[in-house]
């Protein structure tokens, strides 16, 4: 079966951290501002590079037997076995669930942008998982197609 792949950008993080980088650059280069210690400046710069690399988007990949979620460059990777899935349904998350990796009532939420998701329930555990997607109906179809195979 053909591999399914969908990428969801985290525009909030990209734009938000871009604004923070611009603000901090202006602030750190202001002659009227006393300079920060070298290690503090380096720590800030490292964090401003690592955080966007780790969370700039979410790649959902479905193979014949697994669902793989990768945030950013892949440091954070989550795998689910398709054989363990009991049911799949498209859902709309409330706005207050937020974005990113979240604990929600009854399970976990993995998304990078938007409110649409697919809710997965498993045979062997009570918790559910919600995977954010801009195309939840297609994601549901791809998972169900592999469940039926």
In short:
This protein is an alpha+beta fold. The chain has three helices and nine strands, in the order E-H-H-E-E-E-E-E-E-E-E-H. It has a five-stranded mixed beta sheet, covered by helices on one side. Strands 1-2-3-4 form a four-stranded antiparallel beta sheet, with helices on one face.
What does this structure look like?
- With 149 residues, the protein is an alpha+beta fold.
- It has two domains: 45 residues, no CATH class; 92 residues, Roll (PH-domain like), CATH 2.30.29.30.
- Helix content is 33%, strand content 36%.
- The strands form two sheets. A five-stranded mixed beta sheet has the order 5-8-9-7-6, with helices on one face. The chain has a four-stranded antiparallel beta sheet with strand order 1-2-3-4, covered by helices on one side.
The whole-number mean of residue pLDDT values reads: 90
What is the architecture of the largest domain at the second tier of CATH? Answer: Roll
> What is the CA–CA distance across the termini?
9 Å
- How would you sum up the global shape? elongated
String of helices and strands: EHHEEEEEEEEH
Count of discrete domains: 2
Annotated CATH homologous superfamily of the largest domain: Pleckstrin-homology domain (PH domain)/Phosphotyrosine-binding domain (PTB)
The CATH topology assignment of the largest domain is PH-domain like
**How much strand content do the residues show?**
35-45%
Query: How are the strands ordered across the major sheet?
Result: 5-8-9-7-6
The number of helical elements comes to: 3
Unreliable segments of 5+ consecutive residues: none
- Tell me the total number of β-strands: 9
Cα-atom radius of gyration:
19 Å
């Amino acid at each position: 079966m053909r591999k399914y792949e969908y990428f969801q950008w985290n525009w909030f993080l990209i734009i938000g951290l871009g604004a923070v980088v611009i603000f901090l650059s202006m602030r750190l280069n202001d002659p009227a501002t006393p300079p920060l210690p070298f290690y503090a400046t380096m720590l800030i710069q490292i964090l401003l590079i690592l955080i966007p690399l780790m969370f700039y988007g979410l790649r959902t990949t479905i193979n014949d037997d697994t669902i793989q979620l990768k945030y950013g460059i892949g440091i954070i990777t989550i795998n689910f076995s398709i054989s363990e899935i009991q049911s799949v349904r498209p859902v709309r998350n409330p706005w207050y669930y937020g974005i990113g990796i979240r604990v929600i009532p009854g399970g976990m939420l993995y998304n990078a942008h938007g409110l649409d998701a697919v809710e997965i329930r498993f045979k062997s555990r009570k918790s559910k998982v919600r995977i954010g997607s801009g195309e939840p109906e297609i994601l549901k179809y791809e998972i169900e197609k592999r469940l039926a195979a």
